[in-house]
User: What shape does this take?
Amino acid sequence: MSFIKVDAMSDFPLHNLPYGIFSTPDNVKHRIGVAIGDQILDVSVIKFLFQGPVMSKHQDVFDQPTLNAFMALGHEAWTETRKTLQTLLSADGSVLRDDISLRSRAFVHQNAATMHLPADIGDYTDFYSSRDHATNVGIMFRGKENALMPNWLRLPVGYHGRASSVVVSGTPIRRPCGQMRPDHTQPPVFGSSKQLDIELEMVVTVSTYLPTFITFECVSQLFLSCFLEAFFVGGETQLGQPIPINKTNEHIFGMVLMNDWSARDIQAWEYVPLGPFLGKNFGTTISPWVVPMEALLPFVEPNPTQDPVPLPYLQHSDPYTFNINLSVSLKGQGLANAATICESNFKYMYWTMKQQLAHHTVNGCNMRPGDLLASGTISGPDPESFGSMLELSWRASRSISLGGGETRTFLKDGDEVTITGYCQGDGYRVGFGTCKGTILPALQH
Assistant: This one.
């Protein structure tokens, strides 16, 4: 329990304590905050209270406008900081609870704050790690006999995305323009995408004594996919230095929700032979709060059975699959209510985050603070759990109901997409907040 009141349905109990970057109207400086209930604890105000053997020497990281420097300190620093925060915020902790002056300066209501990107993202990788998603897409375009490419069950497939267009939740997304070939008997045409899609994903923050963003995603989808979870990598590695799979957990800082907006018609024409380009790099939305891996460990589950058995550098027996409930809602312009169009779970991923990070670095690729690694579209076995509109509408062959007679196959201008996610504990939940974006009309060319 915390001395800060936390509702049972709040995403941010004492069990969570995610990190984010915020500002306020009376103090526009970007600063590190920790979410607790409906409040934000301004860590820069209480940095002097971090007196542990590691953080007593690095209190200055809490004055930084991003999480990069903190993530670069590594696993020991993260663990010590979390323990200090839990002690300070607990119902029995008197240091912060009973200091009225300090409390008045240290806490900000979330409604009074503006959230920003949690880190300077140097590189962004998107994986394609949901077997259900890859199978669905493969069936659509290659048939059941060739649904999965020969390499898919052997390694975590991924591609490098564009870090400059990663934006924080709430930032509008402009409908992209590009080349498309809607009629395969005719030359390509230029115009605004007609098949804008979402991808439900998650992202991890990796710290090799700096953070990295990695995502997992499908390279042959034609719609906007919006279900993505991603992780930040913390800690920097040297060029030529792989991260062995038994050390990967020391480099995974935390996770955020992600929407990998996708222009499927642009993607379909461009992706052969080198993969996604303009169909993906126009915008990627992430949630602002980075949930630390320690908060997610109580919700770990056995890893999926992998057949064939991966090569030794990808093998790990410890469970690193997480039961995270995920949901996507879509609200059309002028509609009174949003409709839930997808309910999935992160546990459906075939390749784990450890395997993704180990594979990403096995060739000596170095990781730097601020890099982002994403899961790729997270689809489950049932139609309601499909994490992209490409799958939900099955390549536009059926409509997705939004209620009130309104339907979609792809996104329209003015559509607002919101991704949420949480782990359910006994009387509490560990959540991620929201990952939200609204589609703006394309610019005229």
User: Anything to note?
Assistant: Confidence is low (pLDDT under 50) at residues 209-226. Residues 38 and 110 are 6 Å apart (CA to CA).
